[in-house]
TrEMBL record:
Keyword terms of this UniProt record: Aminotransferase, DNA-binding, Pyridoxal phosphate, Transcription, Transcription regulation, Transferase
Gene3D superfamilies: Type I PLP-dependent aspartate aminotransferase-like (Major domain) (3.40.640.10), Winged helix-like DNA-binding domain superfamily/Winged helix DNA-binding domain (1.10.10.10)
Region (Disordered): 85-111
Family, per entry: In the C-terminal section; belongs to the class-I pyridoxal-phosphate-dependent aminotransferase family.
Source organism phylogeny: Bacteria, Pseudomonadati, Acidobacteriota, Terriglobia, Terriglobales
A Pfam family reported for this protein in Swiss-Prot or TrEMBL: GntR
Protein name: PLP-dependent aminotransferase family protein
Matching CDD domains: AAT_like, WHTH_GntR
Limits of the HTH gntR-type domain: 20-88
Keyword Zinc: no
GO molecular function list: DNA binding; DNA-binding transcription factor activity; pyridoxal phosphate binding; transaminase activity
Length: 495
């Protein structure tokens, strides 16, 4: 039998002033609730004693109503399970009807929604995101996450939860966690920060939204890498910011082009350590150029350092923020790639003069991130599990990357050109000019592959499309198999 919990039993409406007998009112209420789908087959109903007590009436009308409902097949009583809504109530009778649909009926004078809301309605479906198939980008090796250690740490804190764990927290985050993050960023990323400048966010996506809200007014122009991270496009466009596409090359964003197109931009969004998605690293000279521009024009730089932990061919490159002497850089990072994305924990290192503004705007959004995982992750870092997991994943991703590069070269060499495979958890496979990458990605999705088209990252149309192939979350067998499938998808389209 299907188990349907009773915890959401809707309030029973009785009108004691009516002349309709109480048992009849109860009977009709239950029947209507079952037919309208408010109560579902298998859902347990309160005992007659509990319902009588809750409604503050005698048990007799409740007994009579239940008896009638049982006789008509709306309720059933099974030994050991109490009384439940009958499983045999036909489904068509129990599907939500009028009440649920009323809100969908468009009134004559239709309510208006915002321009940003309207734009969001026209976003085309992205079938490549519908599954967690091979090459799904931004996915780490979930099967290698040390779940046993994690759950031990969770139960350590949950078995005797402190008041601090359960009460409201600081919009900036749990202080010991911020201290651990600041220490890690200082040592591993050459980020200059005091724990008081670290804000814990619900994924770096929230950090991007906060940057958009705190730093810019609707209509303000900001430089965006083109191609660039679609999540950043969403965050900035949903804040009404005007995105100025600036091309990137093997040294990162073309600062000179930015100066030509919009010297007075209010900011720039960058992925300097590992340009998303092309994989280039911003050169030292461009770093100096952009910091000079920011200092001169009073513009903000938003540095998204989303996967710099994974570099394979060279030593890690320090963050741009560490070179900034004028506090113009807002630095963002995430635990989505190094641990797992459903954790929804990231951080923003905010210049001291912006801490109060970020904190207030965050307070207005969702107040603070769930304390439990902040506390658990603090222990995970402090007890050495984080560093160990990182080391293991670096080796694993290096192996997965070379298996993918080799498989592409051997099976698709004539068709795909690999770029940006020196770091991170994804690479870009460029398609020959003239091939529509969305069409390829749609076909691949039908064949079970989750490859994101490069054009999803492009703000301006570019000569060559491609596929973003994530290898972090795809094991070596799936990689081999996935490349074969991809070849079959391309062959189908070529026919
Ligand atoms: C460029 C970039 N920034 C940030 C993120 C992570 O976002 P979040 O922390 O919201 O999961 C990703 C993940 O795909 C990314 O590719």
């Amino acid at each position: 039998m299907k188990f349907v919990p009773t915890s959401f039993f809707p309030p029973v409406a009785l009108d004691l002033t009516k002349r309709i007998p109480m048992y009849r009112q109860l009977y009709e209420w239950f029947r209507d609730a079952i037919v309208s789908g408010q109560l579902r087959p298998g859902q347990r109903v309160p005992s007659t004693r509990a319902l009588a007590a809750e409604l503050n009436i005698s048990r007799v009308p409740v007994l009579n109503a239940y008896e009638q409902l049982q006789a008509e097949g709306y309720l059933q009583t099974l030994v050991g399970s109490g009384t439940t809504i009958s499983e045999s109530v036909p489904d068509h009778a129990t599907r939500p009807t009028t009440t649920a649909r009323k809100s969908d009926v468009r009134p004559k004078s239709a309510n208006r929604i915002s321009r940003i809301g309207t734009e969001a309605l026209s976003t085309p479906p992205q079938v490549w995101l519908d599954s967690l198939g091979p090459f799904r980008s931004s996915l780490p090796a979930l099967e290698h996450f040390p779940n046993r250690i994690w759950s031990k740490l969770v139960s350590r804190h949950l078995s005797v939860p402190s008041r601090q764990l359960m009460a409201y927290g600081d919009p900036m985050g749990y202080m010991p966690f911020r201290e651990a993050i600041a220490e890690y960023l200082g040592a591993a990323r050459a980020v200059r920060c005091d724990p008081r400048e670290v804000m814990v966010v619900t994924g770096s996506q929230q950090g991007l939204q906060l940057c958009a809200k705190v730093l810019f007014n609707p209509g303000d122009p900001i430089w965006m890498e083109d191609p660039g991270y679609p999540g950043a496009h969403q965050a900035f466009s949903s804040a009404g910011v005007r995105m100025i596409p600036i091309p990137v090359d093997h040294e990162g964003i073309l600062v000179k082009e930015g100066l030509r197109r919009c010297p007075a931009a209010n900011g720039a969004y960058l992925t300097p350590s590992h340009q998303y998605p092309t994989g280039s690293t911003m050169s030292a000279s461009r770093r100096v150029e952009i910091l000079q521009w920011a200092a001169k024009s009073g513009s903000w730089i938003i540095e998204d350092d989303y996967d710099s932990e994974f570099r394979f061919e060279s030593r890690p490159i320090g963050a741009l923020q560490g070179l900034d002497t004028r506090s113009s850089v807002i630095y963002l990072g995430t635990f989505s790639k190094v641990l797992f994305p459903a954790l929804r924990l990231g951080y923003v290192v905010v210049p001291p003069r912006l801490v109060q503004a970020f904190s207030a705007v965050r307070d207005a959004a969702d107040i603070f991130s769930s304390t439990l995982y902040q506390v658990v992750l603090t222990d995970f870092i402090r007890e050495g599990h984080f560093a160990r997991h990182l080391r293991r994943m670096r080796t694993l991703y290096m192996e997965r990357r070379s298996v993918l590069v080799d498989a592409i070269h051997s099976q698709l060499g004539g068709m795909l050109e690999v770029i940006g495979a020196e770091a991170g958890m994804h690479l870009v496979a460029l398609l020959p000019p003239g091939i529509d990458d969305r069409q390829v990605a749609r076909q691949a999705a039908q064949d079970g592959i989750s490859a994101m088209p490069l054009s999803m990252c492009q703000l301006t149309k570019q000569a060559r499309g491609g596929l973003i192939l994530g290898y972090g979350g795809t094991d070596t067998t799936e990689i081999q198999d996935g490349v074969r499938k991809l070849r079959a998808s391309l062959d189908k389209l070529a026919k």
